[in-house]
Structures are given as structure tokens and as C-alpha cells.
């Protein structure tokens, strides 16, 4: 199996869980303004369970796809809510691209991230501008693919894409929610970014730290 990719994925989950432990209160605060306030706790629980499951799979010698499948199941079970289900879908899609036995390169990763984007959009039916995490993942995935296709190495492409995701997540503050729980609260979300977009951008920056080694 692709042990090197599996090890990078497992390290990433551990770092993501630690980051979300620290950010949970702030994500909850943002979700409370126009949603139900559980985004921080959900993301923290989901990522912690995913990190534990990834470790168990990696300890058994699993490849990246299997590690991501175990993590996906754990995240959606323990995280709950819309975001738990969506993160589960995204991680399975990424695993399908990375595979258990293939050598993973920048092209494989960029392709996997494009599949993550497709998974979110077909699962949740949100489009850009609906004020969801789609508003962060679309620019992230597209920029990553663009830069890799132009010949950048993964670290440079990911650096640029993570900056783009961060800007895009901040820009959701000027949008009004049209989907999900936030919709019923209408304009109350104006001036506050979408919690799922913010947490997605935070995850991309945490993975960047892992890629930097
Ligand atoms: P819940 O809304 O069930 O309480 P969370 O609070 O954990 O779940 O997650 C809320 C986030 O989920 C939102 O900020 C948004 O980014 C994302 N989200 C909600 N609905 C959709 C959707 N249809 N497509 C994509 N993302 C969505
Ligand atoms: Mg919520
Ligand atoms: Mg909820």
C-alpha cells in the first residue's frame, strides 16, 4: 500500500483535530449568529474521531484510500450535522483518487481535491453564492488544479490555493445565506462569514503546515 501517503494523511488528521480543538469556540460563535451554534463542537468531535480511526487503519498497514474511508465513517458518525455528512463524503472522494497502492503525486492530489468539490456539490446541491463551504472549496480546488497543471510542485500550488480559500471564506461575510439552517434566519448572517467555509479554509492551512514538514 501507499504507506507514505497514508502516513501524511494520518498526520494531517491529527493536526486538524488539534487545530479544531483550539478553534471550536470561535466556529461555534459564528454558527450561533445565523445557525444553531454546533459547528465548532461538531467539527472538533468529527475530526478527533477521524484522527483516531485513521491511526487505527494506518497501524494495520492500510493504504491512503482505506485510511480515508475509516476516517470518513468516523467523522460523519461522531461529527453529525450537515458538515459531518459532507466531510464524510469529501474524504471518501479523496480516498478514491489517492487509492491504496498508487504512487501519489501533485496531479493525483489535485484530482482528488476536484473530486472532493464534486462530492460536496452533488451531495448538498449548493452552488457558489449560497453562502456555504462550497464558496471556499470551489476556489481552492480550482486554483490547486490550475497551478499543478501549470507545473507547480504540490507545496507551492497548495500554498496559493490555501490563501485563495482563506480570502474566499472571509468574502462569504458579505453574502446572505440561501440554504440550510441559516436560510430561515435570513439577513442575520450578513457581516459574518459562513462557518463551514471558515473551517474548510482553516483545514487547508493546517494541511499546508503538514506538507511543509
Ligand atoms: P448543521 O447545519 O447541521 O448544524 P454544521 O453547523 O456543522 O451543521 O455545519 C454548517 C455548515 O455546513 C454551513 O456553515 C455550511 O458551510 C455547510 N452546509 C450547510 N448546508 C450545505 C449544503 N447544502 N452544501 C454545502 N455545505 C453546506
Ligand atoms: Mg450548525
Ligand atoms: Mg446542527
Automatic annotation (TrEMBL):
Give the source's domain of life in one word: Bacteria
User: What sequence ranges are listed for the domain DhaL?
Assistant: 7-209
* Organism of derivation: Microbacterium soli
Q: Give the signal peptide range.
A: none
Protein name according to UniProt: Dihydroxyacetone kinase family protein
Amino acid at each position: 500500500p501507499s504507506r507514505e501517503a497514508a502516513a501524511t494523511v494520518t498526520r494531517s488528521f491529527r493536526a486538524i483535530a488539534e487545530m479544531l480543538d483550539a478553534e471550536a469556540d470561535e466556529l461555534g460563535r459564528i454558527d450561533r449568529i445565523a445557525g444553531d451554534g454546533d459547528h465548532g463542537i461538531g467539527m472538533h468531535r468529527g475530526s478527533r474521531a477521524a484522527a483516531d480511526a485513521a491511526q487505527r487503519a494506518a497501524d494495520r498497514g492500510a493504504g491512503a484510500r482505506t485510511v480515508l474511508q475509516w476516517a470518513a465513517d468516523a467523522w460523519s458518525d461522531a461529527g453529525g450535522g450537515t458538515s459531518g455528512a459532507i466531510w464524510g463524503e469529501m474524504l471518501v472522494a479523496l480516498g478514491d483518487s489517492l487509492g491504496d497502492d498508487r504512487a501519489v503525486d501533485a496531479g493525483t492530489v489535485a484530482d482528488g481535491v476536484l473530486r472532493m468539490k464534486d462530492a460536496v456539490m452533488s451531495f448538498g446541491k449548493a452552488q457558489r453564492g449560497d453562502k456555504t463551504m462550497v464558496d471556499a472549496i470551489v476556489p481552492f480546488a480550482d486554483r490547486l488544479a490550475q497551478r499543478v497543471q501549470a507545473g507547480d510542485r504540490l507545496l507551492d500550488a497548495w500554498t496559493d490555493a490555501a490563501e485563495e480559500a482563506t480570502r474566499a471564506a472571509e468574502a462569504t461575510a458579505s453574502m446572505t445565506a440561501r440554504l440550510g439552517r441559516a436560510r430561515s434566519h435570513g439577513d442575520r448572517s450578513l457581516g459574518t462569514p459562513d462557518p463551514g467555509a471558515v473551517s474548510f479554509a482553516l483545514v487547508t492551512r493546517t494541511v499546508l503546515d503538514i506538507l511543509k514538514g
